[in-house]
Design a protein that fits this description.
Length: 378
Amino acid sequence: MSAAHGPGLPARWFDGRSARARPAELRLLPAPDGPGLHLRALDGAGETLRLAHRQVGWPERWSATRPPSRVLLDLGAHGSLQIDDVPAWQAAVARAGHRPSLAERMQTRWPVLLGVLLLVAVGLGAFHRWGTPWLAAQLTRQVPLGWEQRLSGQALARLDERLLKPSRLAPARQVELRAGFDRLAGQIDPRLRRYRGYAPPFELQFRAGMPANAFALPGGTIVLTDDMVEQAARLPAGAGDTALLGVLAHEMGHVLHRHGTRMVVEQGVLQVGLGLALGDVSTLLSSGASLLTGLAYQRGHERESDCFAIALMRQAGLGTAPMADLLGGIEAGRAAAPGPAASAPKPAAQPGRRADWFSTHPDTAGRAERLRAGQPCA
Ligand SMILES: [Zn+2]
């Protein structure tokens, strides 16, 4: 026996043929695919056994600081092997060049665990950042207009119940504004339509109960508040209606880019997917409607809608500078009267659950500048 091998590790061999433990000695032999095992019985005729790395069920080292009291190797058809001298076993394993599995490394070395967790987090983050929007865009193409309209009907009914009030605008004024809105909608160039073949019928609705505001619902319904109309009326003659048309053009941009649907799909990929899978349309609609009323602000969507408004207003031969003035006027009004208590009969807004044209559009100065310049977006 060569000196390199030295004495073997004492072990107890349960060979599967008899119930008793047989004294044995064990050597680990380095091999390219992991150490093999050489076993020699110390009783009887000194029977030997050679097993390749893959033929042995190697124990995992659960903790680097608290080694197990004994090691058990699974030898398959040849039974099992028990080693009581754990430190000697671990030293032999290390000498033989055994590479611990990833699971083992995760259990014994926290930096490896941390690294794996980090990779998982980065992967999830990347999916959230790029995968979800991409998936949402693909799914949005498949959402039928009728689905959007039913969802929006529910969302508006809920807003009417809890927040909005009937408009107090004179019927003649409503007719006048609606005529301008319809004319503008009729001037939308097909090239401005982001989704080919998606041409929802636009409908303008008036409501009170909310500060100066406008918002779009998927499927073509756009809501304008009385306060917004009144705020526009303070602009110089003629500019007010142009400003309102600009705001409405911006909301048409949200509709044609299907931003609301995209956000519902994006935020509710799981719920919507489950709803579709289970075929429960009412759950699907109500969860969609609740998501819709709690929409998060998305800066990219606002920029797209501003660009759409600039393009559409140019087509209609109208400027967007009055819209910038309207924006500035609303901001100045809010700065002067920050709380709902400051002015007389305004109902308190419900933070976090309103589709507020203004508060969901930060960066007012930058937007106003872009609208005032009226330059088409690249
Ligand atoms: Zn917007």
